[in-house]
Amino acid sequence: MLVDNKVEGDSRVQKIARSAAEAGWDVTLLGRSPDEVERRWQLGAAEVRLLPMPNPLDRRRHEFRRSWLRWPLAYRPGGIAEHRAQWVRAWQADLTVRAALLERRARAGELDPGGLRRARRGLRLRATAARLLGRWVWLRTKMMNRARSGRRFRNPWDRAYTLFWQVVQGDRAWRRLEPGLWDYELAYGPEVDRLRPDLIHAHDFRMLGVGARAKIRAAGQGRRVALVWDAHEFLPGVKPWRDHARWLPAHRAHEREYARHADAVLTVSDDLAELLRREHRLPAPPAVLLNAPAADHRPADDAPPPDIRAECGLGPDVPLLVYSGAAAPQRGLDILVDALPRLPGVHVALVVNPALRYVERLAARAARAGVADRLHVLPYVPHWQVVPFLSGADVGVIPIHHWPNHEIALITKFFEYSHARLPLVVSDVRTMAATVRETGQGAVFRAADVDDFVRGVGAVLADPARHRAAYDRPGLLASWTWRAQADVLDVVYRRLLADVAPPPAGAPATPGAALPDPPTAQGALR
Q1: What are the phi and psi torsion angles at 308 (to 5°)?
Q2: Helix (H, G, I), strand (E, B) or coil at 376
């Protein structure tokens, strides 16, 4: 299995690797190390390895050049700015020590008054020069950073460049437009070849190319390798984190080039399956694996999950709304803070990464609104603890905005809230809103509309028992379990490897006792 992250925080990847190993397959999950150190641990019977990945090709050529016209004073890239800034700090540190020595000599009577005045004046002049030089270095460094990050690839020349390579090379154009994709190949490819797998499960669009090229190389050696592509989202609907015109065309070209090499495609919803079928002219819609919770993945020696109310310092009768998952502006978390002044007595728990700048801005926003005492920021818990942890709240909130990928799937937190039997308040993104209206498990509000959000929360808190009763419908929660999804996964594997008999379930080739336990911060990415 291949994934372009550090595995921690990606509950779908963790669940798939662990379930495949439990079904008897010998699973090695390759992820990306956050530093230059390779890391290993066991995930159930699956082995996890994080590979170091240098990424020099991810830097654009303009980042190595000076911008003489727009930023003539900018340092040239390559480290001279850091060197100069450190040199100025060293000079200032030396002057501080020299000033202390001068004062010590003055107290000891080693200097006459005239000499002391001249020495002090000289040190003050040097300190002023060092301070001015520091400002000069800061200015040139700022210009260098602006020159490096200022290119957004949206001007006519950049659009023409993108169009030229699309016309000349077609789907191969990503090699010019986004060469950083080769960094993944150079880090993962040799290790995949060394493992000589029967099947490669490539998670998402970056790993599709790595898996397809490994399959092609194996075929050149006379080996057959099955390729499963697990599409977590619809690439044309992704909001690029790089705000320029090359990222999306390049990644779509990369995906189109290698999608035809997949022997089977998996995805997260029926709507996304149909979009992928049309986008890549697949002979049949991909199989669907819902991002449902895996309660049976809890380790036998796991400690009891924390109590969310105790973490917030709240009693059982205090109304508590919870949001659990990734924190970003498009997730709509601002509305939770903005609504608090109009929801007296109600508290909000955000189970997110507390270190994110966006989360810090939310906390500052709550302080300005005078509701900081009712906003609680909590860290992730392991994915198998998420459901019991969330169950102590009163309402699960999903305030995401209208983006293409938000419209087409029931996201992980939807299933986690449901298994925690929480009444829901969700924005009116298509699939989720339709499901909530059909099941009666909560209220729907207009995305980014604070007034309508307050109305929805009030309606649910007024009669939570009615919404919780929706979970008593026969078969509803049973269809939203990971066990049902793992069965789909195993059917796909066995169909592709009909001539390869898997080892008995629970008998992996590599014993887990020889490797360290998984990191503790395996929060679910939702």
Answers
A1: -65, -35
A2: strand
In whole angstroms, what separates CA 515 from the centre of its chain?
Answer: 26
Q: What is the pLDDT of residue 67?
A: 66
d(CA 438, CA 434): 6
Task: Using 70 as the pLDDT threshold, list the residues of the chain that sit under it.
Answer: 58-70, 148-155, 241-244, 501-526
pTM exceeding 0.85:
no
Q: What torsion do the CA atoms of 31, 205, 498, 19 make, to the nearest 10 degrees? A: 50
Q: Is 29 helix (H, G, I), strand (E, B) or coil?
A: strand
How many residues belong to the chain?
A: 526
Residue 489 forms beta bridges with which residues?
none
Which residue's entry shows tokens 């906390």?
363
Backbone angles phi, psi at 351, to 5 degrees: -95, 90
Q: Quickly count helices (H) and strands (E) in the chain.
A: 19, 13
Q: For residues 222 and 270, what is the distance between their CA atoms, to the nearest angstrom?
A: 36
CB distance 32 to 4 below 8 Å: yes
Distance spanning both ends of the chain, measured CA to CA = 20
Can you read off the two tokens belonging to residue 115?
């000499």
